[in-house]
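Dear support,

I submitted the protein below through the web form. The confirmation email said the job was done, but the results page showed an empty box. After a refresh the structure appeared. I'm attaching both so you can tell me whether what I see now is the final result or a partial one.
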Amino acid sequence: MLWPGLYGGFHLDDYPNLSGLPGPNTDFIASLGYLLDTPVGGSGRPIAYLSFLFQAEHWPGNPFPFKLVNLFIHLVNGALVSALAYLIGKVVWAKEASPTVLEILSLSAGFVWIILPMNLSTVFYVVQRMTLLSSTMTLVALAGYCYLRMRHDKWTRLEYLMASMAVGVGYFGVFAKETAILTGLLILTVEYSVFSSLKPPLSRIWMLVFLVLPVALVFGYLLLAGKIFGGYGHREFSISERLVSESVIVLEYLSKVLAPTNARINLYNDGYPFQEVARNFWLVGFSVIGLAALNLVALSCKDRFLSLGILFFFAGHVLESTVIPLELYFEHRNYIPSVGLIIALVLGVGSWLSKLRQASQWKGKVALVLFVSWVGWLGVVCAIEARVWGDPRAFSIAAFTERPNSLRARQEIGTYLMSIGDYASAATVLYSMDSDFGVFAGTYAQLLLLKCHTSEVPVPTESKIIAIFETAAFDRGTESALQEIWRMKRPNNDRCPSVSTESLLDAIHALLNNPNYKYRNNLHVLKSLVLADQRQWLQAAESVNRIGQERVSIDELILGARYYGLAGEIDKALSLLREAESRTSGLLSEVVHQKHIDEIRADIISEDSDVNDRVSPP
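What the results page shows now:
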């Protein structure tokens, strides 16, 4: 059912996050530099990046191995969901259900969650391995906690120690993705819904320290560091628009989990009409009332499954669907929240069916048929979605037709048409973006790339494109298009003679002067690589040197030192190497970088060496 989805391509954030992967001939120790120099999120997410290294030889030409690993992790997570369902069911039902029935329902919960169509945007979107691995550790923590809570009525220091270790495993998941910080809050929802009737209750101090304090500290840090209110400066929506939009979006997520259709599920949701939603008083009002009512029901009802499903789902959205200025809408944010919802639904329906069949055989059979039909519907939608994910043509068409208001969906089909050589249609799609979405730099970067492929399709003059780059709105497609032009123009193999190196440099320079492009590291590095190809070593080094000191990586410092060495600026080269050396901390960083630093330093200071021969650009 899921296998066809493995044959699709890379998408969106796959490119910037995986672009630093080393080539197939790089030894493993040296390749760890990618792991240490890829700062994403607060933790750097090294666990996820380490996992990508094992498929590095397949980047960027073969997505299949990356997606295969994702699918394997997803299946492991499905097994953990079944285990968690079994432990929860055993507590709620005690001796009411037979072990066989409980095992069947637990396996069913895991299966339903595995084929949940909403989860496919996590499994087949390669970079969301971060979510997959983070979720693995959260699920291990939840299962470990539930096992301890079920087996031991009264906790001694040993049980508290073991529970603390289990929770710690969940928090360790922040090194895959920061959402794992919600582990304690999710455990708290399970404790309230499932275990609150057990006597004696757990230590409130332990629960406060291990389950509540970590997430409170994260929000406190973000608030004090200005990353909540200050972070809205580069967003097109305000905090109030975000909050009212998320009140609607979270309920939409809920409906997509329970009643998915292929037309409703899509990777591209950047065209969400947040301004229209914010002005729709009735929609926002009903959504806020609905959220409040659901949570009130969950907190007050005696049905433990209903309480668990609702509280777990909303707790799982506390980090990404509240005040933090992230993008508004991504379906992969439901990967962990849907766990509690599906467990509660499958076990709750199983319990209800058992009671219904005892009261009336035919009613029980009808209800069972309806439930199986619902699962079958999930399977059908899942199978179709998997085939769409695995077919670049179908994926692009679905993005274009199902998300007409998405800039990224339009870019997706434009890129696809370019890849199959239909340049005229690609140009038509790209030209339509200005009238539909406004002027974005990524549109014109793709038009510049189109010029590399064909001279038969009219494109704007380079001077017009560069003028647009100076003021156009930011979008993620710009850098990837310019990087592709650079790759096509490598020395001794120029596959893009229609775009001159000077034009490429002018385009990068225009973007560096564009106030809408606030994060310029990659542009500075790209400029240095273009200059290095022209053997303009000093200019290449100075471009790297313009990266802010708080953002520059060790590898970028080493790169700048190499260029200064080639330019004969020995003192500046050694200064950058000392700066790089001062930033190596920990055994792993020293092993990875120190040898490289020593080699560059030896080349630079050697009295007999010809630096131009012994040190070469990447």
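Response: this is the final, complete result; the empty box was a page-load delay. Confidence is low (pLDDT under 50) at residues 607-618.
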